[in-house]
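Ticket #4471: structure export looks truncated?
Reporter: QA, pipeline team
Priority: medium

Steps to reproduce: submit the single chain below to the structure queue and open the exported record.
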Amino acid sequence: MTKKYIATPSRTKELLNKYGFAFKKSLGQNFLIDVNVLENIIRQAGITKEAGAIEIGPGMGALTEQLAIHADKVVAFEIDQRLLPILKETLTDYDNVDIIHQDILEANVEEVIQTHFHQGQDIHVVANLPYYITTPILMKLVRDQLPVTSLTVMIQKEVADRMAAVPNTKSYGSLSIAVQYYTEARVVMNVPKQVFMPQPNVDSSVLKLVIRKEAPVQVDNEDFFFELIQASFAQRRKTLRNNLNRFLHGKFEKQQVEALLEKAAIDGARRGETLTMEEFAVLANMIYQELPKS
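Actual output as written to the record:
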């Protein structure tokens, strides 16, 4: 049975030759050729026969096929028109798959969910994401507050580590906090280069993001909260005091910034990477309340 699957080197090569398909570097195309890895991703995602799945960038359908076997319904977004006839062939045995030829960043995903899935259905995003556009895709999906339970995605290991990082680590930064504000993030497996065709130049990991029902901290203004966090990491080697003085220049004098830090019980000599999300929330709320109102 296994050799019939799309995710084998021989079947992938056969399809590449049949359709004269050439990988586009600009689309970050690396196809998975190991069924065991795919089945592990399905397990980590918690896919059941009652669940719906959304995939981004199905390629030739290697992951799509496994989702079709294990889920109730699969909707996959594919931007590359050349792959549509290949997907039509490879997924012909599965009547629970719909392919949408659209850029996920331009799609109305909520509308797609309402159209293709049952109301109240448990829905998971599962994807082998193109590395060059991982962050914009994930941030769009979590910020849009879609009715999905989780996102389980294969991404560049370095980015996965950053998204799941905790304070006082080299990987921790504004991206860690942005992702963890909306989700509970965890790296669930590392994946060797050898299971891709062509092999990427970087290592890969599978990151699982479970959507939070409510934010872990209360903030007065989300935009300002995230702006302040980005500013705090603008120059990682500089102190929080230095980064904030630069960010708040023209709004507060240096002594006022120092007073706000003291009021928040945060030492300005610390670096951004040492602050927890809770500390950033306290600081952001305090500064936001004191901002000159125009």
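Status: closed, not a bug. The export was complete when the record was re-opened. Leaving a note from the reviewer for reference: The longest strand covers residues 183-191.
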